[in-house]
Design brief:
Shape: elongated
Order of helices and strands: HH
Distance between the termini: 13 Å
């Protein structure tokens, strides 16, 4: 479970680093959230 949280945090950081706008950040975080959600399920 700890590794999953760490992976989710890393995805969020990468998503924030890669986006250029606030709107883009929201889409990137949503996308990262979906990936983590699919991994958990």
């Amino acid at each position: 479970m700890r590794n999953l949280k760490l992976a989710g945090l890393m995805l969020a950081v990468l998503a924030l680093a890669g986006c250029e706008t606030i709107k883009g950040a929201g889409r990137d975080l949503q996308s990262a959230g979906r990936v983590v959600e699919r991994t958990v399920n």
